[in-house]
Write a structure and sequence with these properties.
The protein is built from two helices and four strands. It is α+β, with helices and mostly antiparallel strands and 122 residues long. A hairpin with a 6-residue loop joins strand 2 and strand 3. Helix 1 packs parallel to helix 2. It has one domain: 2-Layer Sandwich (Double Stranded RNA Binding Domain), CATH 3.30.160.
C-alpha cells in the first residue's frame, strides 16, 4: 500500500508527522476499493495577498481502471483540508462502486428480457 501513495508538497515542507497522518487517513480508501492503482496527494500552501492569510489546498488524484477521480479541497487549516479531502474521495469511491452495481443489475435485467425469459404468472 505504501508504494501506491505519493505525497507531495508545494510551497511547504512535508514533515514526517504530516506524511504519517496522510498515510493513516488514506489507508481507509484502500480498504474500500482494491482496484486503486495509485493515489497521489498534493498539499499546497498559498498566501492571499489581500488578507495575508495562508490557505491550504489539498488535491487528491485516484488512478484506477476507468476514469480517475480528482478532487480539491481548500481551507485555512491544513489538517481540515486533508480530512475533508479524504471524506470526499471516500464518497466518490463509494458512489462509483454503487453505480457499477446498478449498471451491472440493469444489464443483467436487459439480457434476461432480450433472451425472452418472461416471469411466469400463476
Amino acid at each position: 500500500m505504501r508504494e501506491n501513495v505519493i505525497i507531495s508538497g508545494l510551497h511547504m515542507d512535508l514533515t514526517d508527522a504530516l506524511k504519517s497522518i496522510v498515510m493513516e487517513k488514506t489507508g481507509k480508501l484502500f480498504k474500500h476499493e482494491e482496484s486503486i492503482i495509485r493515489l497521489r496527494i498534493e498539499l499546497e500552501s498559498t498566501t492571499c495577498s489581500a488578507t495575508r492569510q495562508n490557505e491550504f489546498v489539498a488535491k487528491g488524484h485516484v488512478e484506477m481502471n476507468g476514469s480517475p477521480i480528482v478532487i480539491n479541497e481548500a481551507s485555512n487549516d491544513l489538517y481540515k483540508s486533508i480530512d475533508r479531502l479524504i471524506d470526499k474521495l471516500d464518497r466518490g469511491l463509494r458512489r462509483r462502486a454503487r453505480l457499477k452495481l446498478v449498471k451491472r443489475k440493469k444489464t443483467s435485467l436487459h439480457d434476461s428480457i432480450a433472451m425472452g425469459s418472461q416471469p411466469h404468472l400463476a
